[in-house]
Known about the structure:
Elements: E1 9-10, E2 16-17, H1 42-52, H2 61-67, H3 71-115
Antiparallel strand pairs: 1-2
Amino acid sequence: ENSVQTLLQVNYDGLLLARKIRVDANTWADFVFNSEYKLIPLSQLKSYVNENHHLPDVPSENDVLKNGVDLLEMNKILLQKIEELTLYLIEQNEATNTLKLEVKSLEEKIKILERR
């Protein structure tokens, strides 16, 4: 790629056409994986969503329609939400595995009691 051609087009409808866009960032959303980061309990998250009709830290529809979207910031927010979902899934998987072990233990105890 010694001869890189830069091509940027904007049509009359405001459509931006480019092959690739690079945005330099000074922060990213991986802070979600720090041990100090605390996920909102799902019950609180449900209440927030029911009351506000959007996720915490995500701009509302009204905000976006009024102010537009900073693409770098929105990508960071979306990644944060994906990382939070991943942590919720890991928690749910661990809880499910614990429940499976408890069910197995109870089934074994039931078998023992049925033999008596």
